[in-house]
Design a protein that fits this description.
It is a single chain. By secondary structure, the chain is α/β, with parallel strands linked by helices. The protein has three domains: about 5-280, Aldolase class I (TIM Barrel), CATH 3.20.20; about 335-385, no CATH class; about 390-505, 2-Layer Sandwich (Double Stranded RNA Binding Domain). The chain is about 40% helix and about 20% strand. The protein is built from 17 helices and 18 strands. The strands form five sheets. It has an eight-stranded parallel β-barrel, surrounded by nine helices. A three-stranded antiparallel sheet has the order 13-14-15. Strand 16 and strand 17 (about 465-470) form a beta hairpin. Helix 1 packs antiparallel against helix 11, helix 6 (about 150-160) packs across helix 7 and helix 14 (about 350-365) crosses helix 15 (about 375-385). The N and C termini lie far apart (about 50 Å). The model has no long low-confidence stretch (mean pLDDT about 90). It binds 3-methyl-2-oxobutanoic acid and zinc ion (ZN). Zinc ion (ZN) binds near residues 170, 172, 203, 205 and 235.
């Protein structure tokens, strides 16, 4: 008997990209989009086309190049937003426009300053406008979880009458409790006339750590679309994590009796890819994809595992595409083995990029006895992060020690072909390097966090530098790996500088939560 399916709507490229420091460039968005297609998501929310020319272009290119899943664009309930979304989506065979308008008393009174009747009128007009372009229209009453139930029921009914084919119920601020949220879904199922003409969807934020629990509770009451993101990235504390909700449905099939179209063997590589491109690392103990998710430390657990895996393991790591070992390759490993591992780690490299990774791998294997996953990731990452580079590190030298004034000399190469050089003193060698880079590029950021760690073990281990910086109130991340930690620090800092320059080129973006302009 075929099982009822839950539709997986991925919003990593829209809500996920709204999280501080997670912005991606066009090439990165396309790469993530392709990985999501291969993962088997049903719908990709590719962005908010009116937000900026860069967002529009990204949605349009994803719509043009990625076929298979439905491609969705977000719009507020006004004509310019909806027209722009259609313009971006129209080249895709399965487009969807997602319109939204806040309905809760707090949003009506303080954000929108609109009466209930006005909200309904605008929602209906927005849905009809979207319907004039295509059939597949989703409507979200923003902050639905805090909306009066009778008003929510009325809005949803009118939205379905106007032609919405999916009704999404966002817990925008992550306030709901699982039982309470499930009751909202049950109430709508029971009381909205025509509810069977639309799919009920859930969109939960994780402010109280309940996004996955709330989504699953709603599914038990008949919701059949879950909006989620890879690694749970998203506004503030993030969204419902795709990997967690999908693996809960799979692992507890006995309980949910539901399925998804996700190829779970691609979960680990997609998670890796998203953390590579956003610079947002997954916490060690994160469910499903964290480094410790399948590690058994306690002796009693290890003993049990050796006797019978199911004593302490409810999922097989192979089901999420996690290879059994971390110690992978060495000097004598060939192209094929490296290619397979690179793919397992989440990279979609073209032949030319792979060839350069293979050459660097051979050079590194001459210097290092064993090559770990983190080494391979560092090699692959250096090859995919080539797109937004305005400035590249040409050379760096520093001088530091007891009784000396720390100083650094840096040479940078500009993509136009010229090289600039300068020197500075600083509070330490790294500070001196950052000062020269700021001086040479003319970009000043406020350093919020700087971390160094060894990515692998042993005397020949590579060092990883991670930087979080603030520029005009926005968080930007940089990350680089090298056997020389000063070089890694300089490259990570330059990544931040290049991101600032790209933001300046692309212009400021509108946030979807801003007030809609009148039609
Ligand atoms: O959290 C939210 O309410 C949203 C809407 C735009 C669906 O992201
Ligand atoms: Zn959201």
């Amino acid at each position: 008997m075929s099982q009822d399916k839950v539709i997986i709507f991925d919003t990593t490229l829209r809500d996920g990209e709204q999280s501080p420091g997670a912005s991606m460039n066009l090439a990165e968005k396309l790469e993530v989009g392709m990985a999501l297609r291969d993962l088997g998501v049903d719908i990709i929310e590719a962005g908010f086309p009116i937000a900026s020319p860069g967002d529009f272009e990204a949605v349009r290119e994803i719509a043009r190049q990625i076929h298979g899943p439905t491609i969705c664009g977000l719009a507020r309930c006004n004509n310019p937003d909806i027209d722009r979304a259609w313009e971006a989506l129209k080249d895709n065979p399965k487009p969807r426009i997602h319109v939204f308008l806040a309905t809760s008393a707090i949003h009506r009174e303080f954000k929108l300053r609109m009466a209930k009747e006005e909200i309904i009128r605008r929602a209906v007009e927005g849905i009809k406008r979207a319907k004039s372009y295509l059939n597949d229209v989703e409507f979200s009453p923003e902050d639905a979880a805090r909306t009066e139930l009778d008003f929510l029921t009325e809005v949803v009914e009118k939205a379905i009458e106007a032609g919405a084919t999916t009704i999404n119920i966002p817990d925008t601020v992550g306030y709901a409790m699982p039982e309470q949220y499930a009751k909202v879904i049950a109430h709508l199922k029971k009381n909205v006339r025509g509810i069977d003409k639309a799919i009920l969807s859930v969109h939960c934020h994780d402010d109280l750590g309940l996004a996955v629990a709330n989504s699953l509770a709603a599914v038990l009451e008949g919701a059949r679309q879950i909006e989620c993101t890879i690694n749970g990235i998203g506004e503030r504390a993030g969204n419902c994590a795709l990997e967690e909700v999908v693996m809960a449905i799979k692992t507890r099939n006995d309980y949910f009796k539901l399925g998804t179209n996700i190829n779970t063997k691609k979960i680990f590589s997609t998670s890796k890819l998203v953390s590579h491109v956003t610079g947002i690392q997954v916490q060690r103990n994160k469910a499903i994809v964290g480094q410790n998710a399948f590690a058994h430390e306690a002796g009693i657990h290890q003993d049990g595992m050796l006797k019978e895996r199911s004593t302490y393991e409810i999922m097989n790591p192979l089901d999420i595409g996690l290879a059994q070992t971390d110690l992978v390759l060495g000097k004598h490993s060939g192209r094929h083995a490296l290619k397979q591992r690179v793919q397992e780690l989440g990279y979609h490299l073209d032949e030319a990029q792979f060839q350069r990774v293979f050459e660097d791998f051979k050079t590194l294997a001459d210097r290092k006895k064993v090559i770990y996953d983190a080494d391979i990731e560092a090699l692959a990452e250096a090859k995919i992060h080539t797109d937004p580079t305005v400035w590249t590190l040409e050379a760096v030298t520093c001088n530091a020690g007891t009784g000396t004034i720390p100083s650094a000399v840096v040479a940078l190469w500009h993509k136009d072909g010229h090289i600039v050089r300068d020197a500075c003193i600083g509070d330490g060698p790294v500070d001196a390097v950052f000062k020269v880079i700021s001086k040479l590029t003319g970009v000043n950021v406020t350093l919020k966090d700087y971390r160094l760690r060894n990515v692998t073990v042993g005397e020949d281990a590579q060092g990883e530098a991670q930087i979080e910086a603030l520029f005009e109130g926005k968080v930007l991340n940089g990350r680089a790996v090298s056997t020389d930690v000063i070089e890694a620090s300089a490259v990570a800092f330059l990544q931040v500088i290049n991101r600032v320059i790209m933001r300046q080129v692309q212009g400021e973006r509108i946030k979807p939560t801003e007030n809609p302009p009148p039609n």
